[in-house]
Amino acid sequence: MRRLFRSPVFLLGLTAFLTAFVVQSGELGTSDTTHRLQTTHSFWTSEPPVFAEEYPEFGIHGQKGKLYASYGMGQSLLMLPSDVIGTYTARLPIFRDYDATDPTVRSIVVSYSTNILVCVLTVLVCFRLLGLLGFTVNQRIAGVLALLYCTTFLHYTQNMMENNFIMLLTLTGLAFQYEWLCTGRRRALLIGSAALGANLLTRLTTGMDLLVVGLFLLLTLWFTNVRGRALRSRLVGYAKIALPVYAVFALIDRTYQYYRFGSFFNTYLQVVAREQRHLDPTLPAAYPFETPFRVGFFGALFSPEKSIFLFDPLLVLAVVIAVLAWRRFRPEIRAYLITFVLLLFAYISFYAKYTDWSGDTAWGDRYVSTVAQIVGFFSVPLLLRHRTDVGRVVWKMGIALVAVSVVVQLSSVVFWCPLERYQMETLGHPTFVVALRLKNIAAFALGKMDQWGLTNGPMKEDPWDYVHITTLNFLPFVLKRVGVATGWVVSMLTGVWFAALAFLIALLVFLRNRAIRKGFGAAEVPAISAGAPTSC
């Protein structure tokens, strides 16, 4: 046991497990994930991927007139094992009188198992990546905790959209492909390529992630003065392994597209556009990319409702450190920042004209939040490494931004995310969503949500939504508010929840004290193979 508590990998994995456990509500978070879970269910049962009564609000017609969800299959495959377990668990006699109540037993099993698994794996991969990039163990721990508590990763650990799964696959692809660059191990390149290829099954735009990781490797080689024949040799070696893997996953995605909609070459956005124009001929010809570019582009950057700098404040710190310490960055750090900042602007630009460029009901702009996290969390280990280079003022500003980020992210999991969307229907636009969330927390704590007019308007028209929005968004409190679960069960879960929270706080204090007093040792950098860049 002592040996385990000396291992930063174990401690961070346990921290991620407890964090994900504590923030779960037992619900899937959004209707998108609910629909994806129904697709999962259709993979192994006789149920349809989309129920007929959901049309035309949801679903598009495919081959033989069958209704399908438009999404990729990635997240549905991810939820398949937990869906099987959750379905059979819900049939146990003990849940006979509860299963139809939301959150259902099935959704509780799926959300807990899937979100916790993705959270733990992402934290471990992030720790590994920072080690490959040469950060000390203490700096790596700080970076992992920054990802977990200072970026929107925490919110999407509670609300199970595709974001964190995409983050896991992207970081895994980056870490293993960079390991190949440093060591020449083909197995690492194969694993990294498979992770990036699997991203294509989740969301087609992750093809940009695939390209950017390749660009990162190329820039790293270039910045370390690898030229001519040596450069061509590394690129050919990369292509021989990565491209066939990518082709396999692209073929799987295209086969799934053909199975649903009868074409290898179109995308689900084209199918959605055709269906929606048939239902509503007045839609613009450019639908679903009819939004003026400037609205979506500058909205993602500066709007009070969706600005990436408001929901991921560490982006500001990343920019400041990059400006002040750029000349002292190692080649791979420069390559990382260049490529992922380019990816951030690529995502913003791609979705700028999309009809729901902001991601609709979400904490921040969910289409670009994953890349914002990748850039944002990186600022913390950089701040620790270059503390003397950036000066005392920037150091203090960095600490302040970390504190602000923690407040923003913790506030994001207190209530169900549609709360502010409902409120904006009466408060109007633009609304400073982060400030409104803090106001909601204060009103709830003081028992003044009604007096402050925060529970009026459309949310009262839907009793189910009203019940879920007006309670803390953690499973014991949701069950108590719904009022169907047996009292002793709610009391037991509440006790477990507070015990897990206390253990998590104690673990974070232990991590901090251990890092300050003794540290965890030096960075673990892989051995360099012949022909690998010397920066590794």
Written account of the structure:
- Helix 1 packs antiparallel against helix 5, helix 15 packs across helix 17 and helix 18 packs antiparallel against helix 19.
- The protein has 536 residues and is mostly helical.
- The protein is built from 24 helices and two strands.
- A two-stranded antiparallel ribbon has the order 1-2.
- It is 66% helix and 1% strand.
- A hairpin with a 5-residue loop joins strand 1 and strand 2.
- The radius of gyration is 24 Å and the shape is globular.
- The chain has one domain.
- 44% of the residues are buried.
Shape: globular
* Spatial strand arrangement across the major sheet: 1-2
- Roughly how many Å is the radius of gyration? 24 Å
Estimate the mean pLDDT confidence: 92
Q: Pairing-aware structural class of the strands and helices?
A: mainly alpha
Uncertain stretches of 5 or more adjacent residues: 523-530
Please bin the fraction of helical residues: 55-70%
The total count of strands amounts to 2
Profile the largest sheet.
2 strands, antiparallel
Total of DSSP H or I helical runs spanning 4+ residues: 24
The ordered string of helix (H) and strand (E) elements is: HHEEHHHHHHHHHHHHHHHHHHHHHH
Amino- and carboxy-terminal Cα gap:
33 Å
